[in-house]
Amino acid sequence: MNIQTQRFIDRWAGQLLCGGVSAWVRLTGLFGTPARMPAAPKNILVILLSEMGSIVLAGPMFAELRRKYPGAAIHILQLKKNQEVSKLLSLTDVEHMHTLDDSSGGSLISDILKVSLKFRSIGLDAVIDCELFSRVSALLSFSTGAPVRVGFTPHTQEGLYRGSFINYSIPYNPYQHISKQFLSLVDALDAPDSMPRNRAAAIRNTPVDTELSVKFTDTELETYRSKLESDHPVTRERRLVLVYAGGGILPERAWPANHYARVVQGLCSAGYAVGLIGLKDDAVLARDLQAQVGDAACLNLTGYTKSIRELLMLMHASALLITNDGGPSHFATVTPIQTMVFFGPETGKLYGPLGHRTIILESGIACSPCLTAYNHRLTFCDGDNQCLKRIAPDPVLDQALAFLNSASASAGAAA
After folding, report:
1. CA distances from 320 to 113, 317, 332, 333 (A)
2. DSSP 140-160
3. What percent of the chain has pLDDT over 70?
4. First to last CA, the chain
5. Helices in 47-161 by DSSP H: which ranges?
6. pLDDT for 374-403, tens place per residue?
7. Whole-angstrom Cα distance, residue 139 to residue 246?
8. What is the arrangement of strands in the sheet containing 240-244, beginning at the earlier edge strand?
9. What is the pTM of this model?
10. Residues contacting 120, CB < 8 A, separation 6+
11. Using an 8 Å Cβ cutoff, are 305 and 275 in contact?
């Protein structure tokens, strides 16, 4: 089911269903004093249907849940296509990972009914809905039967109606990093009775680390590097820089291809190998970039990695990642690689990768960022993403070379 169809259904059917559930809750008297979080909860569900990058940004939230409720089983409900990331990052035990298949409307409805019944049989103490204004996730939080339901609320803002049955709600704040807001959802689970409704419970700083890791043995990394050098001999003599030029499901997030070509040409001329990464769908773009660059040191690695784990090993074998806003920039934070990531339609202040090895590249023009929870991430620029086009390639190339040269100098000094 394509994203426009999902938005249409969520907007019209979702609002009607949320209104119906809210009315039913009021009429049956269930809208009174909400249930309290037990001191030792047994089962907590996190609903996280967003893109893969948001799963990484939710790392501090899962770490906080484990610290506060060490005896609780943490369940995750996510889209089936995103489960690989949760397994790789060990967000919870595999038997506590639950999925929805959104490939078609029928499969999605069927899975919603199945998981709702399953969660009712489990007996959830609480559910955390991490989606900003998705009605289906709000409805799911109610259908699970959890007495404590935490999620975001638009408060007095018009539109984006999600009903009134989230009984521990906090306002979505477009001025705070999303990882900090995820932590506020954990705080709301046991907010004191004196706390005003629709207010976060604690003062927090934006997390500086994902608190996530993926372990590799030295042998595993050396074997992968040997395979890479065997498949692409140019990487034996040249340090590898990775480039992700695709825009994924939001092509307006992509820095212009001709800008990437200019940077890749400069890197190859300076003695580096450049690997163009991405899914198989990005292969056409990669071939076009190779043709523009015209250098054998520019490698098409789209589809080369068969899993997220392999992608992380490729990052371990590389010196730098230059990427559009998207999953690769967040996956990089659990590896040693330095990252340069472009933001424009969205902003690094809200969705920037955590950690200290990321350089955010933004132009800062007046209309940027334009993708928000309030417009369902639909831009008004009609594909003419000036916020990214105005980031010139030569300064980006200079910055990349400055880092690579300084890293080489540091490595030489250490040797």
Report:
1. 45, 10, 10, 12
2. HHHHTT-SEEEEEE-TT-SS-
3. 92
4. 54
5. 52-57, 59-68, 83-89, 105-122, 135-143
6. 777 778 887 799 999 999 999 999 999 999
7. 33
8. 298-300, 273-276, 240-244, 320-324, 338-342, 358-361
9. 0.91
10. 144, 145
11. no
